Amino acid sequence: MATPLTASKLVQILRAEGLTVHEVRNWRTHNRNSKGAWGPLNGVMIHHTVTSGTDASVDICYDGYSGLPGPLCHGVIDKKGHVHLVGNGRANHAGLGDGDVLRAVVNETQLPSDNEADTDGNRHFYGFECINLGDGKDPWPEAQKEAIEKVSAAICRAHGWSERSVIGHKEWQPGKIDPRGFTMDSMRTRIANRLKGKPPTTPPKPSYVPFPGSAFFHVGQKSAVITAMGRRLVAEGCGRYESGPGPAWTEADRKSYAAWQQKQGYKGKDADGIPGKKTWDALKVPR
Ligand SMILES: [Zn+2]
Fold first, then answer.
1. I need a labelling partner for 9 at 20 to 30 A (CA). Which of 44, 171, 224, 267 fits?
2. Tell me: the pLDDT tens digits for 76-115?
3. Ligand 1: distance of its center to the CA of 184 in Å?
4. If DSSP codes are grouped into helix, strand and coil, which group holds residue 278?
5. Ligand 1 centroid distance, CA of 72 (Å)
6. Mean pLDDT, range 53-58, rounded to an integer
7. Burial bucket for residue 15 (CB in 10 Å: 0-12, 13-18, 19+)
8. Contact 260, 233 (CB under 8 A)
9. What average pLDDT does the chain have?
10. What is the model's pLDDT at position 198?
11. DSSP secondary structure string, 30-42?
């Protein structure tokens, strides 16, 4: 039993867990609180959308449709594992489910089978809709499953819950089949393992492009890595570009990189403008 997280707190814990979070329109004040109670919160419910395409799926979860107004959940988890927040407060995702299941979630005990629809779930559960057709064929990319794991673990940690507070819609409401394509037991095991780890205290460090090897840099090479490198060289005051930087490796890239090598203390042949591992790692080219 818990007081709902504020919008800012939810964003903060999801980002701290290493997730990419998109805030959709006015999600912070978008809810169904005028239609019924919101809270106390007892768990997290996982769904699949039966839709495809990120933008269309996010829109329908924000807006709902005739007969079922939005928000249809709190967050949408796309195939890349990004989280799109669409609602904060009561949302139309859980419907009526089994009160015995709710009791088991509250007590974090073994789930009974859901054979009744006697309890308002929208009051008690955070809901996450995962983009999947739910036909048993549409794949669940690892990035998406990892995001489900992270979202669930972040919320459980914030409330002091275990993995047993995370259920699938199909475990709540008779007749529901979502999510389909992985078992909730396997997901709960992943969440439990994540909860055993150290809680994240700071967002993970940005990741940099690993050194691609000196042979990568030659005339005729074209890559977004070279553009990113050029931007970093300019930022370090080493840009020797008349235009650009761009993706194609040019003499201007070589001269700019040579300036960076000199700035790092290299001279002569060691500052020939062809990147080496040490100066590359020092440059910290973002992905
Ligand atoms: Zn559902």
1. 171
2. 999 999 999 999 999 999 999 999 999 999 999 999 999 9
3. 13
4. helix
5. 9
6. 98
7. middle
8. yes
9. 96
10. 77
11. ---GGGS----B-
CA–centroid distance, residue 287 to ligand 1 (Å): 35
pLDDT above 90 for 59:
yes
CB proximity list for 138: less than 8 A, separation 6 or greater? 52, 132, 181
Give residue 9 CA to ligand 1 midpoint distance, Å.
25
Amino acid at residue number 94: A
- What one-letter code names the amino acid at 105? V
Distance CA 43, CA 174 (A): 18
Residue 135 alpha carbon to ligand 1 centre in Å: 14
* Residue 133 to residue 121: CA distance in whole angstroms: 23
What is the model's pTM?
0.71
Centre of ligand 1 to C-alpha 8, Å, is: 25
Instruction: Extract the tokens encoding 156.
Output: 């459980």
Residues 6+ apart with CB under 8 A from 27: 7, 62, 71, 85, 86, 87, 88
Kindly state the tokens that stand for 14: 């999801």
What's the 57 CA to ligand 1 centre distance in angstroms? 14
